[in-house]
Amino acid sequence: REVRRSLGLAYEPQGLTDKAIEQFDRYLALFSDDPDIAFKQADSLTWSRYAYRRKDAIRYFRMGLAKREDLTRRHALARLLAQDRAQVDEAIEQYEVLLAARPDDATWRNEYRELLLWEPRHLDEAVREYRVLAAERPGDYEIELRLARLIDRQHPGSAEAISRYAELVARRQ
């Protein structure tokens, strides 16, 4: 175990990244209980050079998170998942875990809100999130416009949507 791990670690400072990654792939196939190496491997595979290994990066992030919570790595996982519309639900789940740990993280909250807009089945949650945001930032035209559009998608032609649009138009005149 230690020899395989050390070999991968020895390749890195020599600039032999491909060899290190190859060694860590072998190591993690045998020893999936090492979150440090799983995270190291996942981080390396998120580089644009290894974009073709996106699924492996996701697998290694999951492997590491199964053994140790790391919010930075969970965020990286959420962002990777969010790149594929087929994985939106899992990305949203990851953001929910992140926001449970740090509910006031504005960056994560904004990424979560944007992700909710991808799928119509998350429309109700998106409306709730934008209502909260509009209450936090009263008078922010862009946020209120987004909320009006979401409400109109949720309930086309509703009195609330029409009223919100009317208020926005009146403010622009």
Could you characterize the architecture of this molecule?
The longest helix has 14 residues, at 17-30. The protein starts with a helix and ends with a helix. The model has no long low-confidence stretch (mean pLDDT 96). It is mainly alpha-helical. It has helices at 2-11, 17-30, 35-45, 54-67, 71-82, 88-101, 106-116, 123-136, 141-154, 159-172. α4 (54-67) packs antiparallel against α5 (71-82), α5 packs antiparallel against α6 (88-101) and α9 runs antiparallel to α10.
Short description:
This protein is an all-alpha fold and 173 residues long.
Order of helices and strands: HHHHHHHHHH
The number of helices is 10
Largest sheet descriptor: none
Shape: elongated
Helix content: over 70%
Separation of the first and last Cα atoms: 71 Å
The class by helix and strand makeup works out as mainly alpha
Strand percentage: under 5%
What Rg is obtained from the alpha carbons, in whole angstroms? 21 Å
Give the mean pLDDT.
96
Which runs of at least 5 residues are low in confidence (pLDDT < 50)?
none
Number of strands: 0
